[in-house]
Design goal:
elongated; alpha/beta; four-stranded mixed sheet; seven-stranded parallel sheet
């Protein structure tokens, strides 16, 4: 049993939880809790840590059977490695995914890509992935100023969708958007200057939705690349929606159109 927070493995895991740069350098990330651990593809698994209480609980035997080798740690060590105040007793270190734009633009179905510019709230990013899986998106494209997708808060918010939804981070987002347009993908920007209601546009073909920063929205350069500026009509004094909510409205409208076509 590991009982010291000075253990090198404990320190490395804690660094993976806290430091985006270290996650990038190592190509690793951390997942916590029974659900996220159970859904983690076996080929991604690097290390598993469990508390003694979790290990001895007979209801967890099936979950732990897939782990193979694991380390039992004290409650104090688990807290030191965890991103949550009340760890659930199991934590895994996993290998990151590597996707390309070819994973987002597939030949077997029309593209439906969520394009995020400087979306900085981890909860928003995770929710967009989770809702996106439900709506049938083909992937997420992000700029480098968007929250780190391997941030533990993002991981938790995805509820497992991070294992199944392809995502790409673009160093030069405008160039990638120009390339998508040349491939026949229509870009729709959720924008306060939108003249067309979101439910009046056609999303059955290859589609990309542009979602901007929570407070500033899209940059002028990115918005200018959109084929159409769309708006979500509001009642009352509400000016705009949370980024994840707005993205969900657009994704599920596209899903509705595609189901009914």
């Amino acid at each position: 049993m590991i009982t010291s927070t000075s253990n090198p493995k404990v320190k490395q895991t804690a660094a993976l939880v806290k430091k985006a740069r270290f996650r990038k350098e190592t190509g690793l990330f951390v997942v916590e809790g029974p659900k996220m651990f159970e859904e983690l593809p076996p080929d991604r698994l690097e290390e598993v840590y469990v508390t003694e209480a979790f290990y001895q609980n007979s209801s967890h035997k099936k979950i732990l059977a897939r782990a193979g080798r694991m380390e039992i740690v004290s409650k104090e060590v688990m807290r030191a490695m965890s991103d949550t105040q009340t760890p659930q007793g199991v934590l895994a270190v996993a290998r990151q995914y590597r996707y390309t734009m070819a994973d987002l633009v597939r030949e077997d179905r029309p593209a439906l890509i969520m394009i995020l510019e400087t979306v900085q709230d981890p909860g928003n990013l995770g929710t967009i992935l989770r809702a996106g899986e439900g709506a049938g998106i083909t992937g997420v494209l992000m700029d480098e100023n968007t929250a780190d997708i391997y941030n533990p808060k993002v991981i938790r918010s995805t509820m497992g969708s991070i294992y199944r939804v392809p995502f790409v981070t673009a160093a030069q987002l405008p160039q990638v958007l120009s390339s998508l347009k040349k491939q026949g993908i229509r870009l729709f920007a959720a924008h306060l200057d939108g003249k067309q209601d979101y439910d009046q546009a056609d999303y059955k073909g290859n589609t990309g939705f542009l979602i901007g920063n929570e407070s500033r929205g899209l940059s002028e350069e990115t918005a200018a690349l959109a084929d159409t500026l769309i708006k979500i009509p509001m009642e009352g004094n509400v000016e705009s929606l949370n980024a994840a909510v707005a993205a969900s409205v657009l994704m599920f409208e596209s899903s509705r159109q595609r189901r009914n076509s």
